[in-house]
Specification:
With about 525 residues, this protein is of the alpha+beta class. The chain folds into three domains: about 240 residues, Rossmann fold, CATH 3.40.50.300; about 100 residues, Rossmann fold (3-Layer(aba) Sandwich); about 140 residues, Alpha-Beta Plaits. About 30% of the residues lie in helices and about 30% in strands. The chain has 14 helices and 33 strands. An eight-stranded antiparallel sheet has the order 18-17-23-14-15-22-19-20. An eight-stranded antiparallel sheet has the order 28-25-27-26-30-31-29-32. Strands 2-3-1-4-5-11-6 form a seven-stranded mixed sheet, with helices on both faces. It is globular and about 80 Å long. The two termini are about 50 Å apart. It binds guanosine-5',3'-tetraphosphate. Guanosine-5',3'-tetraphosphate (G4P) binds next to helix 2 and helix 3. One of its GO terms (molecular function) is translation release factor activity, codon specific. It is found in: Cytoplasm.
Length: about 525
Amino acid sequence: MSFASETRRRRTFAIISHPDAGKTTLTEKLLLFSGAIHIAGSVKARKASRHATSDWMEIEKQRGISVASSVMQMLYREHVVNLLDTPGHKDFSEDTYRVLTAVDSALMVIDAANGVEAQTKRLIEVCRQRDTPIITFVNKMDREGRDPISLLDEIEAELGMPCVPMTWPVGQGKAFGGIVNLRQRNMRLFKAGADRVTDDEVVPLSEADTLRQRFGHDFELAEQNIELLTEAAPAFDLQAFLAAKQTPVFFGSAVNNFGVQEVLDALVDLAPSPAPRQTTTRVVEPDEEQFSGVVFKVQANMDPSHRDRIAFVRVYSGRYAQGMKLKVQRTGKELRPTSVVTFLSQRREAVDEAYAGDIIGFTTHGGVQLGDTITEGESLQYTGLPFFAPELFQAVELANPMKSKQLQAGLMQLGEEGAIQVFRPQEGGAMLLGAVGQLQFEVVQHRLKAEYSVDVRLMASRFVGARWITADSADELKKFTDANASKLALDAADTLAYLMTSPYDLRLTQERFPKIHFHPLREHAGLVLQKAA
Ligand code: G4P
């Protein structure tokens, strides 16, 4: 198959939702439906097995939240579908943001009883900033929920784009009868059960009388609503969807594996294949022959006694083949992974080949950071993987001073993973941790103990924010650093940052040093792209 046809059959999407809306359940059913897995267990069983296979972070077990995001690949209708899970908890929104930089579309799961919840709103904002096309799945139709029309209104208002229903529910809760497929003009009758795959009864709408007899008022109401929507809602427009200007909406019940096939078909039929991507120097087309990709996530490997880590790389162009020589552009060094894996239905396997859109994992002992561009040789740096200036700071104090080396190593690695931001004050003294969410501190404290045998106390810090620094000239920079030494620090990528004690402090310093630029965002290693605020 040619590069172009390999690329065109890729679909890479993230699944996003507020915790408990049914993201993990839907993921499992998508895998089941595509044939990637054959036995559907209950969610509980799956969660338990997930602990055994991929959940090496104790903290995740303790809290029952998904700290780590994972990647799954499946084949469906001759298409390679790459699904990226995102952590639902708000304290890990940075990780989620980075996952969203690595996908071409998003699948949003909404709980029919709760509508658009807080965390979903945040995720929507990120998708909107990046113009990521969104497919919407309204889940839990087998439960008493909100009226579908009012749900659509809410989704429309929150998304800021029209909703186009592709399926429509007949009844809800105990009376849930099934869904009408508006394009195929038929009704799929609801049957409870987790592992049904193809034995659904489907009745064409031309037999509406039978359906009216069977579902009575619920069917008549659905008919009225469909008529109303056909007049009031815009028709589905592929270009508008791809431009993130409308979202197709599907109804169903993930736990019953119902309405899931429609979503999988939509991913194949409607969702985009990999698009060209911007670098600092040029736009890279997905079917160029030379391999290139970006590290969008780094994660400690399962075995804490080996300090190896997996760098998750989203392929942007070319083809990866086993044994290929690759370079990390930031350092100019060759990447020497101990293994290269693909993520097939929750298992890891040695990767044969990969194309634009695929996610591959390089196991390394270091030398790779979040945001690194990896190529066969060409000097490229992709843009668009941001670090946000932290708003919460704590100073790290060792319980046992003899462990200082382990602490340095641990913090450096956790910093490179992006689990937390680590700042080394220029004047020495305790290392500082910067986070966007409070829970990140707890995870780091826990992991330092579990993986590096280091006990730390976290102490309050006087800092409330950071800005990365660039200057118009070396002279200006020297004047600034001489005058502010006590508030300067280097982060994990050795980028200079100014730590502020209040917003007022920042304003004052900005006024005193007009030729210094203070950036609230930085991209990959050392490069600050955003103009100063
Ligand atoms: P998340 O990843 O978005 O956090 O949600 P998850 O899939 O874990 O689902 C959260 C809960 O919602 C689970 O129940 C799950 O069984 C339930 N659920 C998912 N889809 C549906 C659906 O279509 N209908 C109904 N009625 N429930 C659904 P739980 O009680 O937390 O777990 P469990 O005891 O079922 O394992």
